[in-house]
Design brief:
- By secondary structure, this protein is mainly alpha-helical.
- It has two domains: 2-173, no CATH class; 188-356, no CATH class.
- The chain has helices at 2-29, 34-52, 69-87, 89-94, 104-125, 128-142, 158-165, 175-196, 199-211, 217-233, 236-253, 258-270, 281-290, 294-323, 346-356, and strands spanning 58-59, 65-66.
- The chain has a two-stranded antiparallel ribbon with strand order 1-2.
- A hairpin with a 5-residue loop joins strand 1 and strand 2.
- It is elongated and about 70 Å long.
């Protein structure tokens, strides 16, 4: 089991690297047609999701979750569906929506993509989003039978559903996948490189240095570190992984209750999704739907993001004063040594400049 688990981890790493190479290649050379680029992007995402979030949890000797045979089958199904789109790309690109006929294989591949996407969403995000999606899908077909006249409609046939959802860039391969393919992926890759290079640790150390000696400094460190980390990650999960492992333990050692420490880290990390310049995927989708430059979204988010973290900081300060909590001992504060790591801030400065000039 350990050997098979390690092989699956190796396969997952290889797939993720190939995905990154594909995205970087298209960014440098030029994107393919949307009905080629987006299915490939989704195919990679599905395979990585199934191998990273296994159906039945198994763990290696290092404690890492790995997939099993069912996850491999799901991944192969995603590869098969993506391959079909690539092999038949000329017909799919040139066909006229609602005019050219739909083949049986189109229906099979279409439902394969939809089922796999719902399952990947369930594994990564939980049941809520897939259930909402299923409700809307059911509404498409059950419109004629809806009891409320104002919400009833004529419904949609299976053929038209597949035509719209799978064979055009308006359904499953619409704006959200397009934004992920064209923009979000590169910001996430940038954040991952900067984090692994020590940028995340630098933000945490700076936060410790700025707030560690204040009352309730450990919780204030969590707020400041999450706001700084949010500038490059746009992900609540990444925020918790990078600074939560340090700040939660520190908060508990300095007198905060465990549940309060976890709550501070969770709320602080969630705010990273609205902290410019790299925000959550929703910000990029918003820019695409509104048809405005992403820089305009960044400018609009600055004041709400700062107000969000300022409110958290004040709340933590009041809690620390109320409970009579102390600062972090000098001996536990990190050595900043910023002169040796100043280069880690340069990529962020370049990123802000590039966003500014469009």
């Amino acid at each position: 089991m350990q050997r098979s688990g390690r092989r699956i981890i190796l396969v997952t790493s290889v797939v993720a690297i190939l995905w990154s190479i594909f995205q970087l290649y298209t960014a440098g050379v030029g994107f393919f047609h949307v009905m080629v680029q987006r299915p490939i992007h989704l195919g990679f995402a599905l395979v990585v999701s199934f191998l990273t979030y296994p159906l039945l949890t198994r763990r290696t000797s290092e404690g890492k979750p790995v997939g099993g045979s069912m996850d491999i089958i799901f991944g192969l199904a995603a590869i098969a569906a993506t391959t079909y789109m690539l092999v038949d790309q000329q017909r799919i690109i040139k066909r006229i929506i609602f005019v050219d006929p739909i083949e049986i294989a189109d229906i099979i591949v279409g439902f394969t993509f939809i089922i796999l996407s719902l399952e990947a969403g369930r594994r990564t995000l939980g049941l809520t989003l897939p259930l909402v999606a299923l409700c809307f899908l059911a509404y498409l077909f059950l419109g004629p039978y809806f009891p409320i006249d104002a919400l009833a409609h004529s419904g949609i046939s299976l053929v038209r559903f597949i035509d719209l959802q799978i064979l055009t860039p308006q359904g499953l391969f619409g704006i959200p996948i397009g934004v992920s393919t064209d923009t979000v992926f590169y910001f996430l890759l940038f954040a991952a490189f900067l984090e692994e290079s020590g940028g995340g640790k630098l933000f945490t150390d700076v936060a410790f240095k700025l707030t560690g000696r204040m009352k309730g400094g450990s919780a204030k460190t969590s707020v400041v570190a999450s706001s700084l980390m949010g500038t490059i990650s746009g992900s609540a999960v990444a925020n918790v992984v990078v600074d939560g492992t340090f700040t939660i333990a520190m908060m508990k050692r300095t007198g905060f209750r465990g549940d309060f420490a976890g709550a501070v880290e969770a709320v602080s990390s969630t705010g990273g999704q609205i902290m410019p310049p790299v925000m959550g995927a929703g910000a990029f989708v918003m820019a695409a739907i509104l048809g405005v430059p992403y820089w305009d979204i960044v400018k609009a988010a600055i004041i709400p993001a700062v107000a969000y973290y300022l409110a958290l900081f004040v709340m933590v300060d009041r809690k620390a004063k109320k409970d009579g909590l102390t600062a972090i001992p000098w001996s536990e504060l990190p050595k900043l040594e910023i002169s040796q790591r100043i280069h880690l801030l340069l990529p962020l400065a370049v990123l802000v400049y590039l966003i500014y000039i469009g």
